[in-house]
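Rotation project, supervised by the postdoc (A.L.). Task for the rotation student: set up a whole-complex structure prediction and record inputs and outputs verbatim in this book. Inputs entered:
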Amino acid sequence: MAAYPGMSMGEAHRRITEYLNRFSDAVSKQDAASLRFLLSLSSNSPFLLSLADALNTFHDSSRLIKHSDHYSQFSDILFNFFRSLQTYRLANLFDSYQAFEKSANAFIQEFRNWESAWALEALYALAYEIRVLAERADRELASNGKSPEKLKAAGSFLMKVFGVLAGKGPKRVGALYVTCQLFKVYFKLGTVHLCRSVIRSIETARIFDFEEFPKRDKVTYMYYTGRLEVFNENFPAADNKLSYALTHCNPRREANIRMILKYLIPVKLSIGILPKDWLLEKYNLVEYRDVVQALRRGDLRLLRHALQEHEDRFLRSGVFLVLEKLELQVYQRLVKKIYFIQKQKDPTKAHQVKLEVIVKALKWLEMDMDVDEVECIMSILIYKNLVKGYFAHKSKVVVLSKQDPFPKLNGKPVNS
Amino acid sequence: MQHRSHLVHRVWEQQMYHKITMAMHHTLILLIHMVMEIQDTRDTIITIRSSSSSLTILAISSSLTTPAISRNLTTPAISSSLITPAISRSLIIPAISSSLIIPATSSSLIPATSSSLIPATSSSTLTLPIHNLWEHIKTQTAGGYPSSGYSNQTTTWSDGSYANYTPHQYANYTPDSSTSAYSSGTVTAPSSHYQQQQYKQWADYYSQTEVSCAPGTENMTVASKSNVGCPIPGVSSGYSTSTSQAPPSYTPSWMPESSSSEFSSVQPAAGISSASDAYWQHGAPSSQIHITSPMQPQSQKPLDPKTSYDSFLDQQKAAYSQGHNLQYPATHQVPQSYQSPANHQVPQSYQSPAQTVPSSDTRRVSKLQIPTNPRIASNLTFGLPKTDKDSSTTGAAVKPAYISISQPKANEKVLSNDAADSMLKPGTFPKSLCGYVERALGRCKGDMQMEACQDLLKEMITKATADGTLYTRNWDTEPLFSLPNVDAVNKDLQSSTPGLSLPKYKRSPSRRSKSRWEPLPEEKFVDKSASVVNDTMKYGGWINANDKDRKPFFGNNGNKENNMSGMKFSPLDQKNASKIAQRPVKKQRYADGFNVADNCDASSDSDKEQSLTAYYPSAITLANTPEEKKRRENRSKRFEKRQGRTESNQFKPKNAGAGNLYSRRASALVLSKTFEEGAARAVEDIDWDSLTVKGTCHEIEKRYLRLTSAPDPASVRPEEVLEKALDMVHNSQKNYLYKCDQLKSIRQDLTVQRIRNWLTVKVYETHARLALEVGDLFEYNQCQSQLKTLYAEGIEGCHMEFSAYNLLCVILHSNNYRDLLSSMSRLSDEAKKDETVKHALAVRAAVTSENYVMFFRLYKTAPYLSTCLMDLYVEKMRYKAVSCMSRSYRPTIPVSYIAQVLGFITARPRNEGSDVKDSDGLGECVDWLKAHGACLIADNNGEMQLDTKASCASLFVPEPEDAVAHGDANLAVNDFLTRTSL
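Outputs recorded:
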């Protein structure tokens, strides 16, 4: 949008008045969609951009706001919103955020007084805008060498909004949206522990069924809580939540599906469920391909390479340690393969796997491990019930159970 | 001559909240009956019905037999009337106040007293009337009257903004010595707001107490005045606090007092007074307490009056009142004088408690429907009746006390003078001060100690007043002086047997009285008091004594019921006494909850004792000397420094009544002032930029002392000295405790000088390493977090090493998945190439995969101090390993193998020969396995084997031997020493 340097005062006045009229109309008609449009600062709609130019031309907008009873009632909202829009247009994001937060605060006050929840859409817009604006303001701050703290402020603001919504009544429907915005803030800030209180409030509310929330919010919520469960290494719960998100999300939103799969795949892997290659291909999750391959083959080297190669990515997404724990399954696979080979050779002695065989196999994989270390790993495999049997120290032999020596995980995590 | 005054108040239901009650008052109807009888001559009953806008007051006042007295009374009445408006303003019930005043004026008990006491008599008259009233009530319908009017009044009191109200009253009261009694009466009316019966009763008591105050004034005119003024403010403040506070809170506070001042607690009078205080201050709680407490023995009751006096005195630190019985008034006054050499009101407050006490008794009586009137007498009377009944134990003791009281008149007069002086001059004693006095006296176990303490306190207060630090000083945090050595004092305050102590006290009243009186000259010197007032005071005390004597008789004649009532009341009394005692203290403590105060007291006791012990024993004589003053100033400043922040909140403004905000502001002012003087200031208030210190200290060695105030450049070492200090620590052969202390002080000096450079890093690194060596994770973490920011600022250091330590720390000790992830993701590529970091990462891998073989290999090869960090995880890893092995191995594992794999054998580098090493390690491993419940067997070759199947179920983690109650073995000094001595 080009600036309107030549905008006349009259034109500016007209545009501002138009905005004010539309705003008061939207409120009086309880037209949430228009209100949302009017408050969507970052939508870059021509209407708002031209309004911003008008405001930069016509500096006495506060007089206009106070001029009519229709607007003056919302003067706190409007005045600060105008200021925010002005500074936003001038790319002064810090000031823009400051003003926007004030405006949003005033809006919440109004919202609190509205009996019905008609303005939820507009509130959503505010919650979204304030988060996005805060992120951008933080970037601006950081580039200026100042400490970015606006996102934090946005977090506490959203918490306030959550407080407005989380009670009883029709407004509760909006609580989950705000919760999701909060999740985004917290995950971005790395203060994930703050999610807990919000989650508790959502999940312990008996008066409101979770299913009554809007679907998109439920999916988002499940995605984030699933990620939290990954952090907690609670894989079955993570599996549940992420699967819920996957099955309920919009199938055409591939980016969202990919985000979900990014966490769901490691979770599934860790409970012994491997994805098909086409899935990884389709959603461009090739970083997992080698991992899956390593699990199939029992190729420890491949796993380690894959982990090393994508270490940064895995660390950032937080699945590194999950993937690393797949090593045991790779060992299991390796021993199983040895067992099968022995079985083909001599079925009677197949259940006795000599340690040196395993060491030799690992050597082929260029894994330099001595007998003690491998013995330890076998011991752990048995201990974790990935291998049934026992280890005879004297003869250095893994004695496998004759029944189901390599039990499958079947959706259960490895014993830890 | 017998005078009975009864105040009956009915309180219609009033809401607990003062504000509400205030509104309510207008609509409430107060019936106040004040009946004053003079047995000997004629009883004039004046019934005044004054309908103020909202209140109807019935006041019956009895004129005094003695004309002289009446004259006296009249004057007081006038004064009271003067006072009344002020009170009424505060109370919002002008009519009541006036009515009350009238009755108060009417009665004077003792002609003789009147002559001497003329001004004072009025107050005494008040008390007498009350007594009379009480008697009437008793005889007629004691129960019926009790609560209403007073309760209303109380509410009003409570409603009235305490802060504002109190000061006004004080001012008013102070001028009118005699009037005060009247005013007190008025005050009482407003006092009660409690809805519950108990509350009402208390209110009644209260009102009675007020009335009694008037009587008290009789006894001690000045005192009465002071009482009225003081109690009211005190009460009001107390109310505010009390309402908010839970009843239990009160009890504890009370308990200590009683226990502390054995006498007071034991003795009914003291009890009463305390109770009244409590009542005033706490309102509901106090009432409850009273109810609960009645258990105490009768024997104690007789003592109570004396004790109460004593307690009062003690609390107030009035050395003046030696004769306990007599002191009742005197004591109150004394304390007042003590507390506020400048404050006139203080004495009032004291008196008021006394008055309140009687009233409470009377109320009780009324409730109990005991025909005989306890009331003031109850203070005294309680004791007396009890004594009669209990005669054997307590009675004997009590009686002497009474006698002593009567005798000490001269003393009392002196006291009263002093008190009056003190009272006249000062505004009000800070609550905190009162609390301080309570605390100080609470510790006393014996009479002697009490006296000594009182003397000390008196001195302190006098000095403080002289210094002008009376209000500025934070009495809440003021260290208690050490107990005088008079007696080998037991620290068990409560355990002390009050009964015993009391009797003793009574036995030697005269002696005490002397000792108490001795300080008087000094006070006189300090305060210019109106002699007249003093006289009145004395008389009042005397009168009271007389009353007491009389009352006892009455009580005896009356019934067992009296005794019963006395019994029941006694606990109440004690409570009252404690309350009263506390009241003065509380004046300034509006904001502070009792509990808080108590806590403070408890926590600060030891410090106070320590700091003050040294010089106080000799302090008594020095009280007014300039050196003494200076010392005290210094001491208080020093303490302020230490207390820093706490103090800032607690500082009392000079306008005590103003309330929290004011007090805080004032305190802030004081703080800043003191700061200018080089004293402490709250750390948080300090602008570090402007205060960055440039050290001038050249001592290399310096002990660490946590700063609570701005650092003194003279005690801060500049950078070059700190360098030397660091070297010194490096080369020191001393143990870790010493080094840690030194390093902390170095760190502190660096911080206050805002030095952040290589030296800072070096200091922190040094300390972190030392801490790691001894496993002091707490210090290590502090250093680590500082190092993190220091490194982030680009200061060179052993960054990698400490990154690795940090990583290890996260892995091994926090065990937090997210922390681990973030630490790992924060590692730079460069860091990942560092050997130490690589090692740490390998350790992490070993730990997450529970690969014990790998772990112990890494353990052996750990660089720098990683071993120390890993040390802390070894036990856990071994246990995991053994439980894993016992599950997966069959049938056995050689112990030698376990020892080798789990690092027993090679983990001890100090062993030299391999044989020795092995056997040593093996033995250790065997011990370890056994300690963890493993089953060991010997195979055919005699080699030890772990029976895995058996061990599988029997393994356990033994309780750590070095477990400490506080959960952190690092805090155990012995542990430090043993570890560092290696």
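Student's summary: Residues 234 and 413 of chain A are 9 Å apart (CA to CA).
Supervisor addendum: The interface with chain B takes residues 190, 192, 231-233, 312, 315-316, 318, 320-321, 324-325, 327-328, 372-373, 375-383, 390-393, 399 of chain A (CB under 8 Å).
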